[in-house]
């Protein structure tokens, strides 16, 4: 692997269509395994990526299939970093409110658990806007 200052990385750009989710989640799982994670952890990373990309397609792009979602996977010595960009708008760290799982069970509703799953399955999640694009950055530390 390269030094941490110059991580190995690659990008994938997909249309904003849910039919490409299997491609993205399969890639995320495989990248997690390559980074040294076990199968269970790799599956959780894949679920987090699925939730993040689905949120972009459904919420940022309102289901419109004519946009693009850009995904970058960076292999760092200490972690796998996954960045997801869109131009449809997004969250900021200060806007994120995670649902209380106990309340959710008492009063179930459709949706709302994606961010909670992402936060539970990843070590860090950050949201920001840069140069007219919204970014979700998720980090999963690799085993020592």
UniProtKB/TrEMBL annotation:
Alphabetized Pfam families for the sequence = HATPase_c_2
Signal peptide boundaries: none
Q: Where is the Histidine kinase/HSP90-like ATPase domain?
A: 15-140
Gene Ontology molecular function? protein serine/threonine kinase activity
Keywords from UniProt, A to Z, are: Kinase, Serine/threonine-protein kinase, Transferase
Instruction: Specify the protein name.
Output: Histidine kinase/HSP90-like ATPase domain-containing protein
UniProt source species:
Mesoterricola silvestris
Give the source lineage, highest ranks first.
Bacteria, Pseudomonadati, Acidobacteriota, Holophagae, Holophagales
